[in-house]
Amino acid sequence: MEQGNNNRVRNILIAVLIVLITGTIFSIGFYIFSTQSKMARLEKEREQKPNIVQDPNMISIKSVKPEVANSQKKDSYNNTQSRPKTMYEKAMINRMASVENELNSYTPDNTSSCDEYVGYRVSLHNKWDNELNQIYKMLMASYPDSQKKSLKNEEIAWIKERERTIDGIRSEASDDCSANIEIENREIDTIKARAIELAEKYDRLN
Hints:
The chain is an all-alpha fold. The chain folds into two domains: 1-38; 85-205. 86% of the residues lie in helices and 0% in strands. The protein is built from six helices and no strands.
């Protein structure tokens, strides 16, 4: 009877061992199968990706970007080509900025007399007149004969208009001081505007 019990226990242990071994084998097999399935799926996806880019019915974003970049480069190049190489106007304005700041700091309130104040306005007038004469000579040196004649006639007409304006101010002014102040301020604005206009013409040549 005791031997029968031992046989029964041994059979139970063998059955349990078989179940454990079978479960382990099954788990390993399932892990290997899952791993192989994942690898096969990834490989399939990698193989399909090139077909998406090469499909002629679909536009790849990567293929569009270089065209946009090239277009932007062309636009930038064209803008650079159309931009004047010489920036004489900008250089002139920068050059005169410090002169204007200094001479414009004088007012009728911080000068001792009308003549002193007008003297500072005349100085600024003369500075802009020098700039105008310089850019006029540069244009005359650069223009062909036909444009030289046109510019000369234009300048004569401009001077005559200035003279008419000055005469009008003198005739309407109540006294010499106010007339001189208004004339010099008008002259500064008129000559500065003309100098900038001619500088723009010069920049378009270069």
